[in-house]
Amino acid sequence: MSASRPYRPRVVDDELDDLLTSLPAVSIDGPKGVGKTATATRRARTVLRLDDEQRRAVLEADPTSLVRAAPPVLVDEWQRVPASWDLVRRAVDDGAPAGSYLLTGSASPRLPQTHSGAGRIVTLRMRPLTLTERGTTAASVSLRELLTGGAAIDGATTWVLDDYVDALLAGGFPGMQDLPRRSRDAVLSGYVDRIVDRDVTDAGHAVRNPAALRRWLRALASATGTTASFETIRDAAAAGHADPPPRSTTIPYRDTLERIWVYDPVPAWDPPPGHGLTRLVSGPKHFLADPALAAVLLDVDAGTLLEGRGADAAVPRDGTLLGGLLESLTALTLRVFAQAADAQVSHLRTRGGEHEVDFLVHGRGRRLVAVEVKLTASPGPRDVRHLLWLKDRLGDRLTDMVVVTTGRDAYRRADGVAVVPLALLGA
């Protein structure tokens, strides 16, 4: 890493180091530009960059060169030569020691010719940078401690709404962090262009109508933070055109965008037996890998968002687009920190929409934290009513309740709800 662009430490660094001390092979998955190669290269002695045509040709001509290389070996963009996965798997079967192989991938093949790797190659997800990883905020409230029930709810930040809007538009891709706004916007626009022009095709789905794919991406972006049906999104993609794209087209779009880690939905919560919750929706809540991508696709800027505009897209929503994008950044943050705490993130919504909780973080031992996201500095009774409803239903089975805000102070309300500015939330 050059002196002008020092490496930004990631939450996933500690996870990766822990795994490499006892496991022979770890695969890091995530969208392009998220920092997989930079993180893995710091731990590798041999780097095989398979997005390089010459390096790829050498490996295809002599596959055993991979297992003869000096470990730790990084196989970068392994999906370019799917057989490389099997080579690593067999090396593990043959007794490769801990920390021998790292694989990084920006897509999973549509029809993989590989063994699953179960029990041999452990996968680790990498997402864009959270606010604390960007070095712009200092956390004072730990998600891990919220899960254990012993979190201290305190601290203050100088961040105000304008700061959150700037962070949403800047995105969390490491290579863009130090760019001036105009250059950053150009790179983000180019990122979207590459998805349409190359990445979806490279992942195995031929794009016959790039304009239709871009409309689908825009419709998906407009659904950010909603549980809109895919039929609704499909109709939105047809806005201003004669007919919606057929399901035979949009389903492969959706699946391919998820395989290249651009579409990152939050699944619905499937409560274990005994929780007494019924009539819950089973569909996902829609998010792209980074809220900045949604902003670029919807062509919104800070002024548009702060004025409460930008929600005129064809996918209906409750509230403003800014609220949806803040929820997207919170989803990204929770998932990064939850992964480090060996927990998962889902959402809850009743079928009639009477009750919904933006996120549920659930860890082992039935630890459960409910999180609502509010575009406000000081949440009132309406902002926490769904959290209190869930607490009434679950009792002590709900470890903690949190409302994430854009305010300055973290504190505990009299009703037990923790108020935590997003800038203060940490691993």
Brief characterization of the structure:
With 427 residues, the chain is of the alpha/beta class. The chain is 38% helix and 14% strand. The chain has two domains: 115 residues, P-loop containing nucleotide triphosphate hydrolases (Rossmann fold, 3-Layer(aba) Sandwich); 296 residues, no CATH class.
Describe this structure as you would to a colleague.
- The structure is a single chain.
- This protein has 427 residues and is α/β, with parallel strands linked by helices.
- It has two domains: 11-125, Rossmann fold (3-Layer(aba) Sandwich), CATH 3.40.50; 131-426, no CATH class.
- Helices cover 38% and strands 14% of the residues.
- The chain contains 16 helices and 13 strands.
- The strands form three sheets. A six-stranded mixed beta sheet has the order 7-8-9-10-12-11, sandwiched between helices. Strands 2-3-4-1-5 form a five-stranded parallel beta sheet, sandwiched between helices. It has a two-stranded parallel sheet with strand order 6-13.
- It is globular, with a radius of gyration of 22 Å.
- The protein starts with 10 loop residues before the first helix and ends with a strand.
- Mean pLDDT is 92; it is low at 111-116.
